[in-house]
């Protein structure tokens, strides 16, 4: 991707990942793998790609590690400021729009594919997709990153509306595991989080506890 | 917002001030653009029970020549925060110096001891702003009121936090040792030995790392910067003395010419010391 050789080889760190987010009645479930690569080297095998933006809003980061960390920091600041001014918890749509504003304005310089997911009082659980280029669209289910290509079919056939939180968590874990199996740029552990009106619950599924699919 | 530059705020966006100058310089030098000194390094850090241990080798290379055999790669940031630097030697040196002076000003202004996470955020902001043009891969370690911390900041501005880290050209060798030997809550001796072994692996298996090994131990009680912790076993003995005593060069003639100076103008300016 943007491997700019300066004074030799200085590769940027990428999160060429598998990330996903789904809505259920009452909240959202988000999941990601944990691999960050610099070329062929895994710079961090336990990355946390699920970044809190506000109390009930998270984002899933893919693309350039530096770019997405910087954008997330900027949006966290802007959203925090906005929320204090309003004296109210912010809307997920607001957070998604802030991401879109940065990603679209600087689209030539940035490599960032972000899923914004959270819960607010007005519309409940919502997932917004802000891919590279700065589009913004709300989707009930969204997958992202290099590993997502391998699980579109799985998601299309297995996602049903009105699933329970536990069904969503199982589906997310299964999907991310399948993607990690096939995508070289995804791996490590599966990080899950569920966000609802009652708060955020985070979970980690270690490598040896992942659902197994290969029989060969 | 963090006081990253106390005296004036940095301009927004990327800074390409030197791009035109660099292009012109390239023309002047023809084929031989001077190569920057890289630290081609092995640096590592480990969080242990009572604090953080940082380690580094001491070789600085300029292509295939060893430019400095006893280079110091563990830089002082604050009394409780030290930083190992890999990448371009000048970049790591100046970036850490800048960070250190900004944190000192912050400490004096606010009366607080700086926290490791603040140092990391300032570094991240700065390196991201320069979009990878500053070739500094840093491992920051320190102990503050919130605990023992170890972070790595990449040249593009990405931050990772882990209980053990290695960076530089010898990082793969060092990481092998760390992955095998690391356990949570190590004792001080085990932690020092682990870091020493990790840097030693880098020294042995990476051509650009070598010479001695420095160690820096940070705990609540204070800092122990051991330089060198392990001396290279491949030291040379000088064959002769290279000092020339007085009288080595014969003086044939001596001529003294006094220089006449005239006072042309004298002004007196009073200093207001009230």
TrEMBL record, chain A:
<dbReference type="GO" id="GO:0004298">
    <property type="term" value="F:threonine-type endopeptidase activity"/>
</dbReference>
<dbReference type="GO" id="GO:0005634">
    <property type="term" value="C:nucleus"/>
</dbReference>
<comment type="function">
    <text>The proteasome is a multicatalytic proteinase complex which is characterized by its ability to cleave peptides with Arg, Phe, Tyr, Leu, and Glu adjacent to the leaving group at neutral or slightly basic pH. The proteasome has an ATP-dependent proteolytic activity. This subunit is involved in antigen processing to generate class I binding peptides.</text>
</comment>
<feature type="active site" description="Nucleophile">
    <location>
        <position position="17"/>
    </location>
</feature>
<keyword id="KW-0963">Cytoplasm</keyword>
<comment type="subunit">
    <text>The 26S proteasome consists of a 20S proteasome core and two 19S regulatory subunits. The 20S proteasome core is composed of 28 subunits that are arranged in four stacked rings, resulting in a barrel-shaped structure. The two end rings are each formed by seven alpha subunits, and the two central rings are each formed by seven beta subunits. The catalytic chamber with the active sites is on the inside of the barrel. Component of the immunoproteasome, where it displaces the equivalent housekeeping subunit PSMB6.</text>
</comment>
<keyword id="KW-0645">Protease</keyword>
<dbReference type="GO" id="GO:0051603">
    <property type="term" value="P:proteolysis involved in protein catabolic process"/>
</dbReference>
<keyword id="KW-0378">Hydrolase</keyword>
<dbReference type="GO" id="GO:0005737">
    <property type="term" value="C:cytoplasm"/>
</dbReference>
<dbReference type="GO" id="GO:0002376">
    <property type="term" value="P:immune system process"/>
</dbReference>
<comment type="function">
    <text>Component of the proteasome, a multicatalytic proteinase complex which is characterized by its ability to cleave peptides with Arg, Phe, Tyr, Leu, and Glu adjacent to the leaving group at neutral or slightly basic pH. The proteasome has an ATP-dependent proteolytic activity.</text>
</comment>
<keyword id="KW-0391">Immunity</keyword>
<dbReference type="Pfam" id="PF00227">
    <property type="entry name" value="Proteasome"/>
</dbReference>
<keyword id="KW-0539">Nucleus</keyword>
<dbReference type="InterPro" id="IPR023333">
    <property type="entry name" value="Proteasome_suB-type"/>
</dbReference>
<dbReference type="InterPro" id="IPR000243">
    <property type="entry name" value="Pept_T1A_subB"/>
</dbReference>
<comment type="similarity">
    <text>Belongs to the peptidase T1B family.</text>
</comment>
<keyword id="KW-0888">Threonine protease</keyword>
<dbReference type="InterPro" id="IPR029055">
    <property type="entry name" value="Ntn_hydrolases_N"/>
</dbReference>
<protein>
    <recommendedName>
        <fullName>Proteasome subunit beta</fullName>
    </recommendedName>
</protein>
<dbReference type="GO" id="GO:0005839">
    <property type="term" value="C:proteasome core complex"/>
</dbReference>
Automatic annotation (TrEMBL), chain B:
<dbReference type="InterPro" id="IPR023333">
    <property type="entry name" value="Proteasome_suB-type"/>
</dbReference>
<dbReference type="InterPro" id="IPR024689">
    <property type="entry name" value="Proteasome_bsu_C"/>
</dbReference>
<feature type="active site" description="Nucleophile">
    <location>
        <position position="41"/>
    </location>
</feature>
<comment type="subunit">
    <text>Component of the proteasome complex.</text>
</comment>
<keyword id="KW-0888">Threonine protease</keyword>
<dbReference type="GO" id="GO:0004298">
    <property type="term" value="F:threonine-type endopeptidase activity"/>
</dbReference>
<keyword id="KW-0378">Hydrolase</keyword>
<keyword id="KW-0539">Nucleus</keyword>
<dbReference type="InterPro" id="IPR001353">
    <property type="entry name" value="Proteasome_sua/b"/>
</dbReference>
<dbReference type="InterPro" id="IPR000243">
    <property type="entry name" value="Pept_T1A_subB"/>
</dbReference>
<dbReference type="GO" id="GO:0005737">
    <property type="term" value="C:cytoplasm"/>
</dbReference>
<dbReference type="Pfam" id="PF00227">
    <property type="entry name" value="Proteasome"/>
</dbReference>
<comment type="function">
    <text>Component of the proteasome, a multicatalytic proteinase complex which is characterized by its ability to cleave peptides with Arg, Phe, Tyr, Leu, and Glu adjacent to the leaving group at neutral or slightly basic pH. The proteasome has an ATP-dependent proteolytic activity.</text>
</comment>
<feature type="domain" description="Proteasome beta subunit C-terminal">
    <location>
        <begin position="237"/>
        <end position="268"/>
    </location>
</feature>
<dbReference type="Pfam" id="PF12465">
    <property type="entry name" value="Pr_beta_C"/>
</dbReference>
<keyword id="KW-0963">Cytoplasm</keyword>
<keyword id="KW-0645">Protease</keyword>
<dbReference type="GO" id="GO:0051603">
    <property type="term" value="P:proteolysis involved in protein catabolic process"/>
</dbReference>
<dbReference type="GO" id="GO:0005634">
    <property type="term" value="C:nucleus"/>
</dbReference>
<comment type="function">
    <text>The proteasome is a multicatalytic proteinase complex which is characterized by its ability to cleave peptides with Arg, Phe, Tyr, Leu, and Glu adjacent to the leaving group at neutral or slightly basic pH. The proteasome has an ATP-dependent proteolytic activity. This subunit is involved in antigen processing to generate class I binding peptides.</text>
</comment>
<dbReference type="InterPro" id="IPR016050">
    <property type="entry name" value="Proteasome_bsu_CS"/>
</dbReference>
<protein>
    <recommendedName>
        <fullName>Proteasome subunit beta</fullName>
    </recommendedName>
</protein>
């Amino acid at each position: 991707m943007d491997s700019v050789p300066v004074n030799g080889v200085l590769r940027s760190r990428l999160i060429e990942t598998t990330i996903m987010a789904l809505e259920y009645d009452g909240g959202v479930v988000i999941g990601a793998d944990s691999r960050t690569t610099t070329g062929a080297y895994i710079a961090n095998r336990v990355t946390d790609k699920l970044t809190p933006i506000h109390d009930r809003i998270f984002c899933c980061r893919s693309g350039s590690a530096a770019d997405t960390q910087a954008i997330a920091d900027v949006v966290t600041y802007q959203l925090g400021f906005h929320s204090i001014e309003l004296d109210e918890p912010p809307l997920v749509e607001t957070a998604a729009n802030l991401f879109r504003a940065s990603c679209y304005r600087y689209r030539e310089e940035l490599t960032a594919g972000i899923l914004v997911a959270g819960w607010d009082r007005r519309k409940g659980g919502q997932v917004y997709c802000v891919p590279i280029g700065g589009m913004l669209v709300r989707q009930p289910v969204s997958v992202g990153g290099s590993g997502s290509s391998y699980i579109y079919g799985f998601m299309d056939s297995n996602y049903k509306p009105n699933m329970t939180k536990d069904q969503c968590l199982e589906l997310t874990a299964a999907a991310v595991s399948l993607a990690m199996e096939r995508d070289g740029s995804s791996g490590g552990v599966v990080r899950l989080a569920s966000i609802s009106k009652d708060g955020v619950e985070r979970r980690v599924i270690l490598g040896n506890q992942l659902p197994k699919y290969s029989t060969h | 917002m963090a006081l990253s530059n106390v005296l004036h705020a940095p301009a927004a966006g990327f800074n390409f001030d030197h791009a035109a100058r660099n292009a012109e310089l390239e023309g002047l030098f023809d084929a031989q653009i001077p190569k920057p000194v890289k630290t081609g390094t092995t640096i590592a850090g480990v969080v242990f029970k009572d604090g953080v241990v940082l380690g580094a080798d001491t070789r600085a290379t300029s292509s295939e020549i060893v430019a400095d055999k006893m280079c110091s790669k563990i830089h002082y940031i604050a009394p409780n925060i030290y930083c190992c630097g890999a990448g371009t030697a000048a970049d790591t040196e100046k970036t850490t110096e800048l960070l250190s002076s900004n944190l000192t000003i912050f400490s004096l202004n606010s009366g607080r001891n700086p926290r490791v996470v603040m140092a990391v955020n300032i570094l991240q902001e700065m390196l991201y702003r320069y979009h990878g043009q500053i070739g500094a891969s840093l491992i920051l370690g320190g102990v503050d009121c919130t605990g023992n911390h170890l972070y790595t900041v990449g040249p593009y501005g990405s931050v990772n936090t882990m209980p053990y880290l290695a960076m530089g050209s010898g990082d793969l060798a060092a990481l092998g040792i760390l992955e095998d030997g690391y356990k949570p809550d190590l004792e001080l001796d085990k932690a020092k030995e682990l870091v020493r072994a990790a840097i030693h692996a880098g020294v042995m298996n990476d051509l650009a790392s070598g010479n001695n090994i420095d160690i820096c131990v940070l705990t609540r009680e204070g800092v122990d910067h051991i330089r060198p912790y392990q001396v290279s076993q491949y030291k040379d003995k000088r064959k002769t003395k290279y000092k020339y005593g007085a009288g080595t060069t014969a003086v044939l003639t001596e001529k003294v010419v006094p220089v006449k100076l005239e006072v042309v103008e004298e002004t007196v300016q009073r200093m207001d010391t009230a």
